[in-house]
């Protein structure tokens, strides 16, 4: 069994093609390639941590791609996921209802952030980096993990840059599809990226 990480698939989001210069002819082509690339790597008994921004566009259609993806899927909520507090207008009932919708679509668990440990390696998992953003200013600061020096695996930035350091010098590994050929990233690849930069 292998552990993988990914983020920012943006299933169903036509405008992401233009915003991030994704190399697909249209949104259907993007959706199908994301499914193909995922299933080419991930086996049914593998686990994938999806670090947010799963789907945009017509939500029922966009979320329908999740059930086609191999593996046990765990969602760490991003700012474009419907249960993200500002998206749900901080309404606990809406947050709960959307969480159940995402689970019904194929996620085994949904959380705002989590910690992952394998052997000597421990990582915080969050949609957001400790430092950095896809825009000039850092948004959603109140939803970011506190930087206590633990390496972080994140999404959100849509950069092709895989490794960065936070303001206090903590390693940050970006696993968004824009940085990893539109496919999930294995734990070993994340570790290799970390070791390469140390």
Biggest β-sheet description: 5 strands, mixed
By CATH, the superfamily comes out as: Metallo-dependent phosphatases
Q: What's the level 1 CATH class? A: Alpha Beta
CATH second-level architecture: 4-Layer Sandwich
Describe it.
The protein is of the alpha/beta class and 198 residues long. The protein has one domain: 4-Layer Sandwich (Purple Acid Phosphatase, chain A, domain 2). The chain is 25% helix and 19% strand. The strands form two sheets. It has a five-stranded mixed sheet. The chain is globular, with a radius of gyration of 16 Å.
Topology, please?
Elements: E1 3-6, H1 16-19, H2 27-41, E2 47-50, H3 59-63, E3 72-76, H4 92-105, E4 109-111, E5 114-118, E6 121-125, E7 152-154, E8 163-165, E9 171-174, E10 185-186, H5 187-197
Parallel strand pairs: 1-2, 2-3, 3-4, 6-7, 7-9
Antiparallel strand pairs: 1-10, 5-6, 8-9
């Amino acid at each position: 069994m292998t552990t993988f990480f990914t983020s920012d698939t943006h299933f169903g989001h036509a405008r992401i093609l233009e915003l991030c210069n994704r190399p697909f002819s249209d949104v259907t082509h993007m959706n199908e390639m994301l499914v193909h690339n995922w299933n080419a790597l991930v086996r049914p008994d593998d686990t994938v941590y999806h670090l947010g921004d799963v789907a945009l566009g017509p939500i029922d259609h966009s979320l329908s791609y999740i059930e086609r993806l191999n593996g046990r899927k765990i969602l760490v909520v991003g700012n474009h996921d419907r249960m993200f507090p500002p998206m749900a207008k901080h309404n606990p009932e809406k947050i709960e209802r959307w969480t159940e919708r995402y689970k019904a679509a194929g996620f085994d668990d949904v959380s705002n952030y989590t910690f992952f440990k394998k052997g000597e390696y421990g990582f915080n998992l969050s949609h957001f980096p400790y430092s950095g953003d896809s825009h000039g200013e850092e948004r959603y600061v109140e939803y970011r993990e506190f930087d206590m020096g633990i390496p972080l695996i994140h999404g959100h930035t849509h950069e092709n840059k895989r490794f960065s350091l936070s303001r206090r010098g903590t390693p940050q590994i970006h696993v968004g599809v824009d940085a990893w050929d539109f496919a999930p990233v294995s734990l070993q690849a994340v570790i290799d990226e970390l070791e390469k930069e140390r």
